[in-house]
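> forwarded from #structure-qc
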């Protein structure tokens, strides 16, 4: 339970906050124009609510219903038993966590949060493992969309990009392992390594060998599990609204540039600060990622805020000859592994009641995404 502290009503903290607040919006407003800046913030937040939050809400409802159904009839128990020998040494997670990889790969990052709220899924985890599900799920968010998009591109040189995209998937797996393992070094210190996420209602029961079911006929259990799981998805979908609207709006403003007509107050306009920072770091990133053109840095930087926006850069890059197979592999790995985590990690950690560990999750995943890109580059050099 969170506690509150008492401080003096007026102090240095308030003055510094006011100065930084004014400086931040003055800097952005001086470039975009004050009216355009306000319109862009409001229009972007409204667009995110309609086209992103409700999409995620729909995913959460469907994923919650499916997870509850699979839990009710013991499918998650089977998955846990089969995949534990692989997930434990790689991720230090139970085999049931593989279901989180599948659901996020087929949908988006927050799908794993719906799973994590299901008691039938959560019962296989220890407390320290639960927060790292944010890093695991985010590593594979929108994986199918990103991979299919990359495979569908045509190289001007006739290069086979299908194999490059598959290498990128493998790079994302490596990045996910790094991210989860780093995150768990923090959560083990915070929670310890013994306490289970859910305690059995009957102390004599072994959580791994027993499971609770609903009363009634098979048809009734199916209907109840689907509706209960869907309701959980609604609750979680509503919880992420503040994080997505606030964080993602400002990430997009710091990532994107002006529209073709300049600054008009339209959705998604921005000051391009993050790509500019990326260009200054290109002397480090280019050798590690194998980029042959510094403009390619725009993809991983943009994917920090929204991988959907990042993949829209690819056709233009290909037509201009800026990127090739190596970049497609790296883009797939980093796009999938990062997949807009700056705009979802806060909301996801909040949903898991682990808000105080959000900074640790972001740090771990930043390192994991870089390792995903570096791994994809090295694998491409070795295999192609």
């Amino acid at each position: 339970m969170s506690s509150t502290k008492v401080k003096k009503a007026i102090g240095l903290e308030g003055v510094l906050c006011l100065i930084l607040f004014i400086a931040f919006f003055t800097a952005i407003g001086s470039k975009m124009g004050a009216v355009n800046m306000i319109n862009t913030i409001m229009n972007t937040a409204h667009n995110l609510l309609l086209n992103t939050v409700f999409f995620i809400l729909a995913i959460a409802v469907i994923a919650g219903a499916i997870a509850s159904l699979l839990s009710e009839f013991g499918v998650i128990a089977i998955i846990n038993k089969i995949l534990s020998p692989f997930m434990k040494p790689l991720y230090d997670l139970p085999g049931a966590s593989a279901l989180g990889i599948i659901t996020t790969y087929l949908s988006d990052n927050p799908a794993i949060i719906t799973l994590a709220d299901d008691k039938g899924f959560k019962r296989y985890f220890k407390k320290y493992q639960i927060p790292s599900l944010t890093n695991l799920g985010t590593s594979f968010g929108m994986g199918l969309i990103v991979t299919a998009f990359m495979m569908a591109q045509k190289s001007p040189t006739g290069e086979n990009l299908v194999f490059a995209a598959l290498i990128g998937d493998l790079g994302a797996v490596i990045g996910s392992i790094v991210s989860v393992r780093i995150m768990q070094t923090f959560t083990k210190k915070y929670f310890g390594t013994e306490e289970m996420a859910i305690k059995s209602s009957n102390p004599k029961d072994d959580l791994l060998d027993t499971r609770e079911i609903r009363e009634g006929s098979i048809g009734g259990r199916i209907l109840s599990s689907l509706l209960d799981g869907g309701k959980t998805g609604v609750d979680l979908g509503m919880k992420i609204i503040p994080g997505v609207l606030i964080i993602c709006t400002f990430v997009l403003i710091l990532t994107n540039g002006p529209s073709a007509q300049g600054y008009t107050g339209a959705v998604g306009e921005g000051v391009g600060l993050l790509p500019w920072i990326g260009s200054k770091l290109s002397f480090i990133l280019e050798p590690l990622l194998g980029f042959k053109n510094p403009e390619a840095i725009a993809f991983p930087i943009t994917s920090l805020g929204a991988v959907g926006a990042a993949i829209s850069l690819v056709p233009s890059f290909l037509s201009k000859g800026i990127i090739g197979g190596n970049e497609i592999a790296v883009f797939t790995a980093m796009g999938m592994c990062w997949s807009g985590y700056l705009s979802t990690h806060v909301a996801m950690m909040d949903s898991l009641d682990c808000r105080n560990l959000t900074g640790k999750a972001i740090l771990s995943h930043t390192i994991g995404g870089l390792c995903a890109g570096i791994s994809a580059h090295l694998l491409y050099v070795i295999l192609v």
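QC bot note: The chain has one domain: 39-383. The CA atoms of residues 164 and 329 lie 5 Å apart.
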